[in-house]
Amino acid sequence: MNVLGPLTNPAGARRQVVGVADESLLDLIPGALQELGHIRALVVHGCHGLDEISPLGSTRVVELRNGALLDYELTLESVGLSPVKASEIAGGEPEENARIVKAVLSGEAGAHRTAVVLNAAAALLVSDRAPDWPSAVSLAGDTIDSGAAAAALERLIASTCG
Questions:
Q1: 68 within 8 A of 74, measured Cβ to Cβ
Q2: Taking the model in full, what pTM does it have?
Q3: Domains and CATH numbers, the chain
Q4: 124, HSE (Cβ side, Cα atoms, 13 Å)
Q5: What CA–CA distances, in Å, run from 105 to 47, 118, 142, 147, 162?
């Protein structure tokens, strides 16, 4: 597991979402980010050992906000979503994964969208573009539905020569 990578970010990011597969790191990483001068951060550990916000069930979150560390459980129900099955979000070969990303960003409903919306919501929350989890989840879904997320992907593809 790469513990040092998120802590030694050469970009000097002061807002960050960090996923940890080992729940014990929730006792270490948030304080380290605080000591490094982060303004806002989310350190997350999803159920079943996921190092991201889990679409399968609950996620333990330690949030650095206004100089304080807040430790809480995020449930899908609290943000208006339903849990999905692990088999529904399994990836595949690169071509299949690319198809899934394009489908999600084109507005296709389903388990993959739930996973994307949850984790995009974390970025929106930590960047102060949304005041709370339900608002962040709503904004993430609205951004997908508006076509803005798909347009951003197309710009990225074009700028990197496809």
A1: no
A2: 0.91
A3: 4-159 (3.40.1030.10)
A4: 21
A5: 25, 14, 11, 7, 17
- Mean pLDDT over residues 79-106, rounded? 94
Q: What are 108-156's pLDDT values in tens digits?
A: 999 999 999 999 999 999 999 999 999 999 999 999 999 999 999 999 9
- Across 9-160, the runs of DSSP E, i.e. the strands, are 15-19, 40-46, 59-65, 68-74
Contact 20, 44 (CB under 8 A): yes
- Strands (DSSP E) contained in 40-153 are 40-46, 59-65, 68-74
Mean pLDDT for the stretch of residues 72-87: 96
How high is the pLDDT of residue 2?
66
Angle between helices 94-105 and 148-159 (to 10 degrees): 140
β-pairing verdict for 15-19 and 40-46? parallel
Rounded distance, CA 104 to CA 106, Å? Answer: 5
Tokens of 17: 């979402």
Residues 72/123/28/36 CA torsion (nearest 10 deg)? -130
